[in-house]
Amino acid sequence: MAEHLALLLTLPSHSSPIASPSKYSIPTKSMAATVFGTAVAVAAASSSSASSTSRFLSSATRATLSFSSPSPSPSLLSRSSSSSSFNFLRSSPLISHLFLNQGRPNSCGSNRRFSASSTPKCLASDPEQLKSAREDIKQLLKTTFCHPILVRLGWHDAGTYNKNIEEWPQRGGANGSLRFDVELGHGANAGLINALKLIEPIKKKYSNITYADLFQLASATAIEEAGGPKIPMKYGRVDVVGPEQCPEEGRLPDAGPPSPASHLRDVFYRMGLNDKEIVALSGAHTLGRARPERSGWGKPETKYTKDGPGAPGGQSWTVQWLKFDNSYFKDIKEKIDEELLVLPTDAVLFEDPSFKVYAEKYLQDQESFFKDYAEAHAKLSNLGAKFDPPEGIVLDASPKPAGEKFDAAKYSYGKRELSDSMKQKIRAEYEAFGGSPDKALPTNYFLNIILVIAVLAILTSLLGN
Length: 465
What we know:
The protein is mainly alpha-helical. It has helices at residues 28-45, 50-68, 76-91, 93-100, 127-144, 147-158, 181-184, 192-205, 211-225, 260-271, 275-282, 292-295, 327-334, 344-347, 353-364, 366-382, 408-412, 420-432, 445-464, and strands at 4-9, 22-27, 289-290, 315-316.
């Protein structure tokens, strides 16, 4: 065995995208003593007897020496001692964490307690930290008015998904890859470094949240805080670990392609989205501005943007560009205000026959727009993601509505119609006894008893006569 052993320990960093590896050169014997000594210390901390601890240390020391000292003919004792030592290492939660699970994201908080007989369930993100981070994002929105760029951050992380690629993370999607410089440098992501700077302090504060979850949490929260619909989100997305896992450039839509309708369908169909979802998601342009220095589109400033809020400048699609509503569809259809932006990919929503059906609908009915948008946003945020747990984490589980209390008097007078909930309750009870809409109960005991009594009464009457 070599006298020295070089260990490369790559420790995951929550505060920066890429952890810096560090090398340590440790003598073999010292390393063995350190490893076993740490494991022994963990076990010894739970022992209440000083003498038993002393005997345990002595035993472990002998096992260590037999493991690390070379011998031309190892004895059965040394082999069993070495084997038991390795088993002890595997069973130690501390050693297992340090040496067997390096580089894997872990959301088991340091404040969680668990017994030696049970293993804590580690999720991609900690649910309680997600809830706290959401409150911090709300405060960030109130002070910086960064709703539009946070929406864009979540969209562009998820929008690289390719449904034709099965492998993760090659398929792209919501996996946190947008935090790396190589992807931030894509032309479609110009300016998103500012969004990353805004939420990086939140990521450092809540280290047990993945970047993939934080991007989508920020995006959905921005929509809701701007007056938009509640997005039915789930969390637990796993992060990619390095820039080599970023998707290639060119998966995101352009603002001014030669054939806008075909371009939108090529990009969004590749993600698995349809025409209705394309139009609904386009409605999010009711928020934000285009800046010529970033996208090459829009004016440097307009009367609606020259004074902010937030950083002044740019050209907005709507007058109230921090309010989420359906005014986008009205403004891009009328095109009467030169101060408002209409991109080729906006105008085509009222030019393409299929897109126009939904654009006209959302122009007239904001409630329908909100409903379809919320569903499309949630679908987009899940594209390509790998969840841990597989079913995801829901922060705001809606409580089940209380069932209607049955009051016979309400239905025995005036022939009042049964409510839908009561009909469902009665049907559920009926089916519990084996009945169904297409099949009667196999035996109606009550009716049988009535028939038997009737037959007996008739026979008694006949015999009496």
